[in-house]
Backbone:
């Protein structure tokens, strides 16, 4: 004998079917307004809130080899299609679509990490939002990798002095950015 068998073995209703208790409505209901799934923190800044993003956000990840490697994986899986391996805007889609901005430009180099994170999160111009595809910590790691690409393209005198010359400095900086030194140096000299 079972207590309330109809509760344990009720009829199955597919989410797409009409609700028998509410004709004209789907069985699948929208969540109550304001609810948030467990373990999810919504990104509350709108696309045009770049000033608020620069004021309120900061990169929580330290710049370590592991974080740069993680950022490189994200960049090479997601960003390289448009921005290219070196971040120069020479991605695979450039012949078909308009060229995206170079991440190596003075303008982008002057942006704080939070603005780059915000653009990855919300999109800008033709670039869509990648918030649903890239976890927040991976977006921050990608920002660190973009900074490494920028430093490889524009090494400081200290970088060049530590590497033992201009050519070695470019190769060493590119190697630090995660690319093989000879490949990055060859690509840099080709551009």
Residues:
């Amino acid at each position: 004998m079972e207590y309330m068998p109809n509760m344990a073995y009720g009829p199955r209703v597919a989410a797409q079917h009409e609700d028998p208790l509410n004709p004209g409505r789907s069985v699948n209901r929208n969540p109550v307004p304001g609810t948030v799934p467990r373990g999810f923190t919504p990104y509350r800044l709108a696309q045009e809130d770049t000033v608020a993003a620069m004021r309120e956000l900061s990169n929580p990840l330290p710049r370590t080899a592991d974080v740069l490697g993680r950022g490189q994986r994200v960049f090479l899986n997601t960003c390289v299609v448009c921005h290219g391996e070196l971040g120069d805007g020479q991605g695979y889609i450039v012949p078909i679509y308009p060229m995206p901005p170079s991440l190596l430009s003075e303008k982008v180099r002057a942006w704080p990490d939070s603005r780059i994170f915000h653009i990855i999160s919300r999109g800008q111009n033709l670039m869509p939002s990648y918030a649903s595809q890239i976890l927040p910590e991976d977006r921050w790691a990608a920002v660190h990798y973009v900074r490494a690409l920028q430093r490889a393209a524009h090494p400081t005198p200290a970088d060049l002095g530590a590497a033992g010359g201009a050519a070695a400095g470019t190769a060493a900086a590119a190697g630090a950015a995660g690319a093989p030194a000879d490949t990055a140096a060859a690509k840099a000299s080709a551009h």
